[in-house]
Design a protein that fits this description.
The chain has 366 residues and is of the alpha+beta class. The protein has a six-stranded mixed beta sheet, with helices on both faces. Strands 13-12-11-14-20 form a five-stranded antiparallel beta sheet. A five-stranded antiparallel beta sheet has the order 15-19-16-17-18, with no helix packed on it. A hairpin with a 2-residue loop joins β9 and β10. α2 packs across α3. It binds adenosine-5'-triphosphate (ATP). The site of adenosine-5'-triphosphate has 11 residues, from α1. Adenosine-5'-triphosphate binds next to α1. Belongs to the ABC transporter superfamily. GO terms for molecular function: ATP binding.
């Protein structure tokens, strides 16, 4: 069992508060990713769990036991840093063996355990090499091997693959996922890369300015962002956000988007849904991902004509900026669907993909 529970955790550096009243339960064997922009407090949170940083108040429990007064070495937790932190004068074998030798394990046990971990990480052929002879990806495999070899209760990783190039990062991502499936160690992983978070996490913890914004499975935070921050931080290309005004005309509902923008047809029950969340038709923001902005070459029922402003061809699909009032809505289209900037297309909003937020508080409305 390695459940990690943070209760009312606060952290100040001098007068600056970098973790605000954090409550979080990480289940045994879960892979949790702390995600947020630089400076949001995710590394500090991870270091606090590890015992590398004191907390100012609150409680951290591992397996039900309060650990905030225990040294890092007494918490039975392994930490993998972004920079590999290997011992340069030791071979790969000796680097991985280091924690086992420090724990006084017998030579035969050390040998067996190093080989099991090296085989899982596919680095057996590197065991006699020194770190200076390894690529970045292999060095990080060794660092992960050293962390896993003691079979710690939990493994904490701080941007462990952030320094690798894009292709290697992708390979290592799948490898980390496979390792977790095989080992099932409780894992807490810090990154600012939302793609990494989406692909690795059982649950993502989105943080901003020391405040937990949302916790949920990758698909939950993608499909039901709790607020404007999460909506814009998760997903690439980013979700369109625009101020919007609800208009009703007879039984029909329309949404006027942006400043001086067009009005898009919406389901007739939308005003009632927004009203039920405590808002009228004003002060709301629309969120819609580019795949929810549907374009056609010919006018169709419910479409409005919009001018294409910029076309970004991304290979598998294009992202097209459509002028709406003084702003733009980004649409995802089939590759080459809109020929050139200046062309007019006919767009509608897929009502099943709309999100509404209180513009002032940023909180999701429905
Ligand atoms: P990054 O991805 O850049 O590491 P982060 O989200 O992990 O960012 P933290 O490293 O936890 O953020 O830092 C949170 C805030 O605390 C930042 O404003 C940082 O400057 C500040 N901070 C971190 N460590 C210290 C320290 N030892 N002394 C003073 N301030 C610190």
């Amino acid at each position: 069992m390695a459940e990690i529970v943070l209760s009312n955790v606060q952290k100040f550096f001098g007068a600056v508060q970098v973790i605000r009243d954090l409550n979080l339960t990480i289940a045994d064997r879960e892979f949790v990713v702390l995600l947020g922009p630089s400076g949001c407090g995710k590394t500090t949170t991870l270091r606090a769990i590890a015992g590398l940083e004191d907390i100012s108040s609150g409680e951290i429990r591992i397996d039900g036991k309060p650990v905030q007064d225990l040294e890092a070495s007494e918490r039975d937790i392994a930490f993998v840093f972004q920079l590999y932190a290997l011992y340069p004068h030791l071979t790969v074998f000796e680097n991985i063996a280091f924690p086992l030798r420090a724990a006084g394990e017998s030579k035969a046990d050390v040998d067996r355990q190093v080989r099991v971990v090296a085989s899982a990480l596919d680095i057996t052929h590197l065991l006699q090499k020194r770190p200076s002879a390894l690529s970045g990806g292999d060095m990080q495999r060794v660092a992960i091997g050293r962390a896993l070899v003691r079979r710690p209760k939990a493994i904490l990783m701080d941007e462990p693959i952030g320094a690798l190039d894009a292709k290697l990062r992708e390979d290592m991502r799948s490898e980390l996922k496979r390792l977790h499936i095989e080992n099932k160690a409780t894992s807490v992983y810090v990154t600012h890369d939302q793609v990494e978070a989406m692909s690795l996490a059982d649950r993502i913890v989105v943080m901003s300015e020391g405040v937990l914004q949302q916790v949920g499975s990758p698909i939950e935070v993608y499909q039901n962002p709790a607020n404007l921050f999460v909506a814009q931080f998760i997903g690439s290309p980013v979700m369109n956000i625009a101020t919007a005004r609800l208009e009703t005309d007879g039984g029909a509902a329309r949404l006027r988007v942006g400043d001086g923008g067009e009005a898009f047809a919406m389901p007739a029950d939308l005003p009632a849904r927004i009203a039920a969340s405590g808002r009228g038709g004003e002060g709301i923001s629309l969120g819609i991902r580019p795949e929810g902005v549907v374009v056609a070459r010919q006018p169709m029922e419910g479409t409005v004509p919009l001018e294409a402003h910029i076309i970004e061809p991304l290979g598998a699909y294009d992202i097209v900026d459509l002028k709406v009032g003084s702003g733009v809505l980004r649409a995802r289209t089939a590759s080459g669907f809109v020929e050139k900037a200046g062309d007019t297309v006919f767009a509608r909003l897929d009502a099943t993909q709309t999100h509404f937020f209180d513009t002032k508080s940023g909180q999701s409305l429905a």
